Amino acid sequence: MKVSIFDVAKKSGLSVVTVSRVLNGATSVRENNRQKVLDAIKELDYRPNAAARSLASGKTGIIGLIVTTLQDSFFDAVVKELNETLALHGYYLAISVYDGIGSGESHYLIQEDRVDGLILLSPIKEDNYIVELKRRGIPYVLIDNQLPENDSYSITIDNFKGGYAAASHLLELGYTSIAHLCGQEMFRSTRERRAGFLQALQKQGLAPFEIVHGEFEITMGYDTAQGWLAEGKLPGAVFAGDDNIALGVINALMEAGVKVPEEVAVVGYDDHYIASQLHPHLTTMRQPADKIGVAAADMLLRRISGEMKRGSNIKIDPELIVRESTVGDANIQR
Question: What is the pTM of this model?
Answer without folding.
Answer: 0.79
